[in-house]
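cron nightly-structures :: item 1 of 1
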Amino acid sequence: QSLLSFHKILEDDHPELPMNVTDACKDFLLKCFVKDPDKRPTCEKLLKHEWILSREKTEEKKVNMENNVY
């Protein structure tokens, strides 16, 4: 079992992506799964990805609504 899992990690480009996520989320995940570190975006770039920024805005709105800040 563990050897099969290890083989899949080495051979597959990335794990299976959930079907119920947005295109922006899929793009973010695919960028994270790039195996070659020279081709993979840096953490700094990934933190500026549109999906991360959109999640931050959503969370900020939620907190503002909970605190009655508009």
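cron nightly-structures :: done
Residues 50-66 form the longest helix (17 residues).
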